[in-house]
């Protein structure tokens, strides 16, 4: 990709300066000048009426013949030598897509001394595992992992690359997509192949879950998507399955912008929100941080996890790791209790795919009731203890 100003065409109108979302263009002697922080988004070229910006959209990899891109890839996220369950879910849907296309399913495994994990990925459906092993790769690092995944993509030209919409996947996927110049659909809940074109149809909730958008990437490869955990089903593992494990040369470098010095596990985090079948979430309607004990007590009674709205997190009532929503975690439990939460679109974006939603709110017109399976209108501080008491009785606790 490239961009340059054609000075003889530039009239000094400065429309491009206003069009640039990154402040990466300025006027000097009545001529536009592109600055170093230009991201090559092309907005200025679209805005210019005088053809004064020569913007070449062709990316570094040179998409060329799209049919030369083959195979479905899954980024096999692992932490401390344990593969994230979301990677198995991706292999489940990836297997389906690869079979539809008549192509192979490959997993990309990056870490340190993670070779034993490769066989697990094969058992869950991978035909091949691209494996990179080095001490520097032991912990996830956005920059280094993006270097390595981009390198593999440029070298092997996969047709589809899937990552889980976890903290790691959401950071890695867009970096790689931007580097290689392709599109990425975030937070997908459905993936299918269009039988007419062979394109990947990537479905995700849009406008706060009010409609489902199906997105295609017809002109660029690979087609990249992050997929919400706990939406796709993993296959039954088959330890007899065989596949190829292909060791790759890690791409390492000095002077990384970030380094992980220490990992501190949060105390008291007993149940993982993403894994929980039952989540009890509290919002501003609790009125006081001490009332979160009511949420914790119900969650504990039911063996569930504690969630929260951003308002509760921003107020400092509970750590960010509990936040559910657009800028928090996306969850899909069997039962989600929303207690004193209004149901803003940003909150719904993270929990509306829950099987059953129970809302407790004193305002009968609160938007949360529009998505609730069961709604209780009343004071959460009175209702929560009653519910917890009944569950304790029923469960013999
Ligand atoms: P409020 O909206 O204040 O609602 C409190 C509710 O409690 C009200 O409905 C009220 O009727 C009820 N209530 C009050 N007292 C009681 C009582 N005694 N008994 C019962 N009910 C009671 N929000 C998120 O949650 N997650 C996100 O990830 C997120 N990301 C965002 C990203 C962006 C870019 C932006 C702009 C916003 C984001 N938000 C997010 C914020 C979101 O818009 C809302 O502000 C937030 O969800 C409100 O939290 P709440 O429902 O707890 O509080
Ligand atoms: Fe700004 Fe995008 Fe033009 Fe670069 S290409 S100057 S970032 S509008």
UniProtKB/TrEMBL annotation:
Q: Print the keywords alphabetically.
A: FAD, Flavoprotein, Iron, Iron-sulfur, Metal-binding
Please give the start and end residues of each transmembrane region: none
* Pfam families per record: ETF, ETF_alpha, Fer4_10
Q: Which Gene3D superfamilies match?
A: 3.30.70.20, HUPs, TPP-binding domain
Read off the CDD domains from this record: ETF_alpha
Q: Which cofactor does it need?
A: FAD
Q: Which residues of this UniProt protein bind FAD?
A: 284, 309-310, 323-327, 340-347, 361
Do the record's keywords include Iron? yes
Domain (4Fe-4S ferredoxin-type): give its ranges: 1-30, 31-58
**Cofactor binding summary note:** Binds 1 FAD per dimer.
Gene Ontology process terms (BP): fatty acid beta-oxidation using acyl-CoA dehydrogenase
SUPFAM superfamilies recorded for this chain?
A: 4Fe-4S ferredoxins (SSF54862), Adenine nucleotide alpha hydrolases-like (SSF52402), DHS-like NAD/FAD-binding domain (SSF52467)
Cited InterPro entries: 4Fe4S_Fe-S-bd, 4Fe4S_Fe_S_CS, DHS-like_NAD/FAD-binding_dom, ETF_a/b_N, ETF_a/FixB, ETF_alpha_N, ETF_asu_C, Rossmann-like_a/b/a_fold
The molecular function terms in GO held by this entry are: electron transfer activity; flavin adenine dinucleotide binding; iron-sulfur cluster binding; metal ion binding
Keyword Hydrolase attached: no
The family assignment reads: Belongs to the ETF alpha-subunit/FixB family.
- Which named protein is this? Electron transfer flavoprotein alpha subunit
């Amino acid at each position: 990709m490239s961009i340059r100003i054609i000075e003889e065409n530039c009239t000094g109108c400065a429309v491009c300066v206003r069009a640039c979302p990154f402040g990466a263009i300025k006027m000097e002697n009545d001529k536009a000048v592109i600055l170093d922080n230009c991201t090559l988004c092309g907005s200025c070229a679209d805005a210019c009426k005088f053809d004064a910006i020569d913007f070449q959209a062709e990316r570094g990899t040179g998409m060329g013949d799209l049919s030369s891109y083959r195979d479905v890839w899954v980024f096999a996220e692992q932490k401390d030598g344990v593969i994230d369950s979301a990677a198995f879910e991706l292999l489940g849907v990836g297997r389906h897509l690869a079979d539809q296309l008549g192509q192979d399913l490959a997993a990309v495994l990056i870490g340190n001394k993670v070779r034993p994990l490769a066989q697990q990925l094969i058992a869950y459906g991978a035909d091949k595992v691209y494996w990179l092993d080095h001490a520097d790769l032991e912990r996830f690092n956005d920059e280094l992992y993006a270097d390595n995944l981009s390198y593999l993509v440029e070298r092997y030209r996969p047709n589809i690359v899937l990552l889980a919409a976890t903290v790691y996947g959401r950071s890695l996927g867009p970096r790689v997509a931007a580097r290689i110049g392709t599109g990425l659909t975030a937070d997908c809940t459905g993936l299918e192949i269009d039988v007419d074109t062979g394109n990947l149809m990537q479905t995700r909730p849009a406008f706060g879950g009010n409609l489902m958008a199906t997105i295609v990437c017809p002109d660029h490869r690979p087609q990249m998507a992050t997929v919400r955990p706990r939406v796709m089903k993993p296959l039954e593992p088959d330890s007899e399955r065989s596949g190829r494990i292909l060791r790759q040369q890690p791409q390492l470098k000095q002077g990384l912008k970030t380094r992980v010095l220490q990992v501190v596990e949060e105390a008291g985090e007993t149940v993982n929100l993403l894994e929980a079948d039952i989540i009890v979430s509290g919002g501003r309607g609790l009125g006081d941080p001490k009332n979160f004990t009511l949420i914790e007590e119900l969650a504990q009674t039911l063996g569930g996890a504690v969630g929260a709205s951003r308002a509760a997190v921003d107020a400092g009532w509970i750590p960010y790791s509990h936040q559910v929503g657009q800028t928090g975690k996306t969850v899909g439990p069997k039962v989600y209790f929303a207690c004193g939460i209004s149901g803003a679109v940003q909150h719904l974006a993270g929990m509306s795919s829950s099987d059953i939603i129970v809302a407790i709110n004193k305002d009968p017109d609160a938007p949360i009731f529009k998505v609730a399976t069961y709604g209780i209108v009343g004071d959460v501080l009175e209702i929560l203890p009653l519910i917890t008491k009944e569950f304790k009785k029923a469960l013999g606790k």
